[in-house]
Amino acid sequence: MSTDQQDRNPRDLNLYAPLPDYVRHQQAHAASLSAVPLDPVTQTFVPGFVTAQVSSDYNARQVYNAKVKDKVLMLDNPAKESADKKERKQNRRGTRRMTAREKREKKVYEVPADCQDYALFIPLHNLWLQYVEELFGRQGNAITHAQKLVKADYHGAIMTVVRSKCHSYIGVTGIMVQETENLFRIVTEQNRIKAVPKAASVFSFKVRNEVYTIYGNHIRYRAAERAAKKFKAKPTIDL
Amino acid sequence: MAYNPQFPHPKAKLFLSHSSFSAKNPRHQAIISTHPFNHEAEVFLPNTSIKDIEKIFDGISGFYYRVDLPLSFFLSQKVINQYVRSGKVAMGLARIGGGIDTDDVVALEGNGNLILSVTKDTYEQLGLPGKAAQFGPDKQRFVVQIDLTAKSMVPGKKGYDRIKWCFENTLNKKFTFFIASVNSSTGVTEEIEFPGEVEPSKIPLKRTLHESRGILIPDLNGIKTISTEDEWKQEALDFYEWLGLASLRARRSVRFIIPIARAQFDRKRMHNTMDWLHTNLPSRTNSRYITVYLYFTSITAASSLILAYHICAYSSQNLNPTHALWASFTVWGFQDSPISWRHQEHGHLVSGENHYTFVTWPDETYVLYQQLGTLDAYS
């Protein structure tokens, strides 16, 4: 069997082939490269010390060769990195991430005050309308459209809160600018951002002369998650 | 043989109290005036005749409107200033569909309080702050109270604008109101101006006088001497039932329902379901007395009722001081009313009764029966 294999191109990778020559030559060199830097004091002291300490039940020389010689032993726990050293290391990396507290303080995800303008988001609404046109296509009825809308993105839709357990949310109308897991941020015509929780609310928007209703309780997922989500039937549409 | 239900059933309540009109703190004024929504009243005067009474009761007249109104009508400044804020007390009650236990009920009190007792569905779409009702399944009914006489009920204020928006957008259906405007000082009903597109139907106070002969009037001296013993209570309850029967007899003119006293128990007449009832009240054997029942159906303001009451209470003694026995005055409240007495919440289980009866004697003492259904916060 080996002759068969040798008849083939010797350069082929053969699992059972012997190591090439240059590797064998380098073996010794590699061993010296990976050698642990040894202190001369250690070199003289350790063998004698270990063999003297081993109890008489065991062959001292064998124990030394098997367990200690050419081995790196941890005699103590390595020093723990201090917290600021860790931070310095992280900062050196260049990709410094913000904590949730920092994000909240710096209001990273909130719409800045000078951008809370209804007129500013009207182009977004138009963009959304085009998106929905593409989504629906030319054919289809309300049912198929609704199925497509379940996984669609609502950023830019003009939404109205139709029902809510809390009376103050009822009637809030505007362009939806942000969707989080539990909220819709809507900019109203009075140029205010209203954060309406999805739970215990029912939203509706109008597309192509059809009014679609979304039950907030069933849609409490992040927008990206919702696209891939398989929706199960909930027991009730009660708030 | 027991054919009454054996399981615990909802109990209606009857409160008995007694006082006098000339007492220091007259309770009767409070009882009558804090019970705003009434639709029927009856006066029972034994041993008088129609001829004597007619002239007095001619003075009692009034009317109310039955009209389909949207709730935004009550927010128009004209209505608020003309009817609600001024001395003219406007009262109305409206319901859609089944009544206070199943559907929405709206009531406007004389003091300008607009009360909306709504179902959960309506409340979740309405948009106005309210509290969960005490009665009914948990959080299935909500009560919204709006004070129309508040200083903030002016266009331009946030609260007013929000209410207006809600009445024009979320709850813009029309309620069939029974509404009347009464001058609080004179007690006279006055006209209401409605916007053009609304078609009100003006319904006058319907007054009926009945005269009945041959009724055995029970002797109420036992009840007049008030005591807290069970016997007294039983007599009072018996009399209450007798009064109800007598009133039914008058209205239906059914001859065979005759209040029977212990002394005379006629087995031959027991062919009616009501006949098994007999009262243990002693009776006057002289049956020549005639009694007068007057009942009027209207939505009446409390102030006009007080007027009617005084008329009836003193009429009997003034006319026949020697023969004056007693007089009784019963007022029925709406079964669908959201409040009973003193703004306390009222619901409807098997019935939504909230009526009262005054039984008075010529010396101005009275016994008051207040009947309340199961679901009532006043009791």
Structure overview:
Chain B: One of its GO terms (cellular component) is ribonuclease MRP complex. The complex is a heterodimer of chains A (239) and B (379). Chain A is built from 9 helices and 6 strands, in the order ααααααααββββββα. Chain A has 239 residues and is an alpha+beta fold. Chain A folds into 2 domains: 3-67, no CATH class; 115-228, SH3 type barrels (Roll). In chain A, strands 4-3-2-1-5-6 form a 6-stranded antiparallel beta sheet, covered by helices on one side. In chain A, a hairpin with a 2-residue loop joins strand 5 (201-207) and strand 6 (210-215). In chain A, helix 3 crosses helix 4. The longest helix of chain A has 19 residues, at 118-136. The longest helix of chain B is centred in the middle third of the chain and has 23 residues, at 230-252. In chain B, a hairpin with a 4-residue loop joins strand 5 (105-108) and strand 6 (113-119). Chain B has 2 domains: 13-61 and 207-260 and 273-372, no CATH class; 64-202, no CATH class. Chain B is α+β, with helices and mostly antiparallel strands. Chain B is globular, with a radius of gyration of 23 Å. In chain B, the strands form 2 sheets. In chain B, strands 3, 4, 5, 6, 7, 8, 9, 10 and 11 form a 9-stranded antiparallel beta sheet that branches. The chains are: A alpha+beta (239), B alpha+beta (379). At the A-B interface, strand 1 of A face helix 4 and helix 5 of B.
